[in-house]
């Protein structure tokens, strides 16, 4: 009996597990636990018979003075623990590195060109087959090595064990394997592989485990690292990462394609995951993928705060919030960027008509036709994919009324008839353009997560959300005083302006100076008061939504905190929160739960 093998864990595998857990802890969701636990169970169950066979055949062995003693099918418990901890560590690294990625946009519908409407990729089908042939070839060679029973035996056994699973994972997850950035695929394979190569070198040199002669090539990748060991760790990490990718393929299909899976549960059963995984790529919805790609592009380009927050949401709600953002952004931009008041008014009218049609029947040909005839092509997916069946009509109508209020700045002489005179006018405006957005975010959350909250409690939380939206809009106005002035808009109530001895026109002409700073401070004080009064309601929401929603709110409020400091950094006329500071805020707010 000895503790050598156990010490390998204490020194080399447990510390990274602790570190990765601490790093990922604020983001660790039930779905992640499910994924990791599922993969660990599969890894352990699949590896035990193989490892037990290798030990019994004497391919490798553990001197009795290095292991504590207890065994499972001849495998020392330290070794069984190795399967668990390696799968855990590599999975966690994968989860961390893939957090910013929204996987569904990397899927492709594979259809004949004649039937294609959106992004499709026919070439991938050939890659899939090519990969399958290659892996089948490796399998044949491995079988030969094993049958010969000579120096290639161990390599043959590793490959015979791993390649069938790899073949399956490749067959079901080739789209993500091929298209995701290397940070999500290659890095989480190579980093732990390199690390384990070093650990293995140390362990083999100390004789913690021993590979017997005669069944190995006797070739070293570097001094102390047998090629078979190097191959083993590379292959096992590849299996773990591909397992995660297969899981994510299933989740992407489940949460991105409502025509296939209308209302999937937040924790899908293995049989549902299986069905999603085996859905042929020709059944994927190309228009949906395009809508999601454009939504992600829009969010990345237009809002750093919500982009960061979006990556902390998971599953169905992440998809739905992205699509809601896309719609709000497109609608706001259509009105804001119109070249004349008539054009802006016509966009509002068209958006209203789109809502009338779509609320009657979202995916009807009439709605499709109206969208394609009335809106620019780059905006159409945002309208087509809005998850309207999960939203009520009132906040959408109110949002459009909010845009109408924006237009009154350009109608006639706004310095004579400014649209926002009193604080109540500002509150109404902020409720319309931002309170409504909060309302819709919460409607999506209540739809996508099961919640035991009564209707009255939901209403109370929605009202708090509305106030939080107003708070964010106050920050937005405080940030954009100069930008808005350039567009002929002043959202600060005229009553406040007069109290400072200024006029609507003077702000348009010169939106800076100490008095402007005082008005900015007043806006921010009101924003933070509203924020303080509403933030506790977040803690009443389903647990999975709390942390991410805190990130969304706090990373936007951070703009307000930056504005309160002297000498903030201004980019394109707007105060910005430096990236590291944003990450720190996200980390802190997630950890609060
Ligand atoms: C994580 C994620 C993807 C969230 C999406 C949130 C979402 C749907 C945002 C839509 C934003 C948008 C384009 C709305 C159009 C009207 C508008 C311009 C509103 C202003 C936001 C955008 O600011 P930005 O700086 O990008 O805009 P401009 O460049 O100035 O045009 C607003 C400031 C409003 C944003 C309000 C919210 C997102 C609501 C936040 C509150 C909650 C989510 C509820 C919190 C819940 C409780 C219980 C307190």
From TrEMBL:
A Gene Ontology molecular function term of the record: lycopene beta cyclase activity
Compartment(s): Membrane
Any single GO BP term: carotenoid biosynthetic process
UniProt key word Mitochondrion: no
Principal location: membrane
Transmembrane segments: 6-24, 36-55, 80-97, 126-146, 158-177
EC number: 2.5.1.32, 5.5.1.19
Keyword set, alphabetical order: Carotenoid biosynthesis, Isomerase, Membrane, Multifunctional enzyme, Transferase, Transmembrane, Transmembrane helix
Pathway: Carotenoid biosynthesis; beta-carotene biosynthesis; Carotenoid biosynthesis; phytoene biosynthesis; all-trans-phytoene from geranylgeranyl diphosphate: step 1/1
A GO cellular component annotation in the UniProt record: membrane
Reaction equations catalysed: all-trans-lycopene = gamma-carotene; gamma-carotene = all-trans-beta-carotene; 2 (2E,6E,10E)-geranylgeranyl diphosphate = 15-cis-phytoene + 2 diphosphate
Entries under InterPro entries matching the protein: Isoprenoid_synthase_dom_sf, Lycopene_cyclase_dom, Squ/phyt_synthse, Squalene/phytoene_synthase_CS, Trans_IPPS_bact-type, Trans_IPPS_HH
Family, as annotated: In the C-terminal section; belongs to the phytoene/squalene synthase family.
Protein name in the entry: Bifunctional lycopene cyclase/phytoene synthase
Source organism phylogeny: Eukaryota, Fungi, Dikarya, Ascomycota, Pezizomycotina
